[in-house]
Amino acid sequence: MMHRLFSVLLAFAATIATPALAQDAEQAERLEQRAEDIVAAMRDEAQYDAVFADDFVNAVPEAQFRMIQQQIEGQFGSMVGVDSVEPANPFGANIAIRFERGMASGQFVLEPGEPYEVTGFRLSELRPMGDSFEQWLSDVEALPGQAGVLVTRVGEAEPLAAYNASQHFAIGSTFKLYVLSALARSIAAGERDWDDTVPLSMRSYPSGMMQTWPDGAPVTLHTLATLMISISDNTATDQLIAILGRDAVEAEVVASDHGEPQATFPFLTTRELFLLKSGSEVDADEYLTSDVDWRRAALERLATIERDADQVEAAFTGGPNAIEVEWLASPTDIARLFQRIVATEDETALDILAVNPSLTPAMRGEWAYAGYKGGSEPGVLNLSWLLRDEVGDWFAVTMSWNNAETVVDESTFELLAMRAVSLAASR
User: Fold this and answer.
1) What is the pLDDT of residues 142-153, one digit of tens each?
2) Is the sign of the CA dihedral 338, 343, 345, 349 positive or negative?
3) Are the CB atoms for 354 and 370 separated by under 8 Å?
4) Beta bridge pairs of residue 85
5) Which of 99, 128, 157 finishes a domain?
6) 195 pLDDT exceeds 60?
7) CB proximity list for 187: less than 8 A, separation 6 or greater
8) Count of domains in the chain?
9) pLDDT digits (tens, 9 = 90+) for 285-319
10) Residues 6+ apart with CB under 8 A from 126
11) Same domain as 173, residue 124
12) Most CB contacts within 10 A, which of 7, 21, 189, 371?
């Protein structure tokens, strides 16, 4: 539930902008040498604080720098060296660094005077080279805990790649796709319209912004859905569930051909999940092992409970917390849900999914359409894309990783996801 939006931006510093001035041979040579120094520092062949300026070293300690480098090498192989340096101005350049199975590109900036140490360095694009679904699946299978992935053309029985694709996982805020689909179906049936205005009456906990909005604030269904998907706003989500009715969302789960709908019923609001996991009014283990009727009665007991936001946050800062008490879906379930959303032919719903595609500009440019929703809590991570190529074929890339013992490494999984999207684009 605290999932940060997917980003392949591996930022080593933020100070990138510099004045554009005329180039000369000495300046170009200096930039090329500093590019080699950066790679030498990454190889531990040059002293870190002799290459990078003090402000950079303070912002990005050497241990953090090494950790990010190891994550890249863990999936793209050992670093080969500088592939290219293209000066952007006297004190900044674009850089491409070659790895065995990929290319990392970004920018670096030097201080304007001697000793011309690096004040900013970031890798904003990582592209696989010579990758394969076989290698990718091998890396997925090596993850600790349980993982399941599916890369497929929407509606086709034979996937491009799959692993534990029928296994059910906790998916965090990706469950909001079911709410979006139920809303789109309600609008298609003429029951509602995207520009319908409703008073804000629900209140949940972050993520999002609407939890701080005034009671009764008039909002459209379009606004609620956009905030629910693009920034994973929990209050917007609960408001939509209240408008549609829990029964309607549960009916959408069934209609989407979910493999085990009863496992995720009653369909929780975000507030209910937070209250379940942050207090003792309902025992999480008993909730997990009880039937749906008992669970519904338990949720009614939570309806009048008020919990301080700090208490809720504390329940999710000590590692995984009853991750089986969650919204559950398999990669196959999510691909089927994407197929159902496409079938509505509702351009507004698709536009909302595309507000935050969570891809770099270069990766986004490989697809005619890219929509995204992800979700997480400690020990839970899901990343799911609906993509369309230039021919008009739809693809789903959906990946879940659960570990009940410890938090999962978001950066590692995001690198795997980047590879999956690139492999799907080059199938």
Assistant:
1) 999 999 999 999
2) negative
3) yes
4) 95
5) 128
6) yes
7) 193, 194, 221, 346, 348
8) 2
9) 999 999 999 999 999 999 999 999 999 999 999 89
10) 8, 10, 72, 76, 102, 103, 104, 105, 415, 418
11) no
12) 371
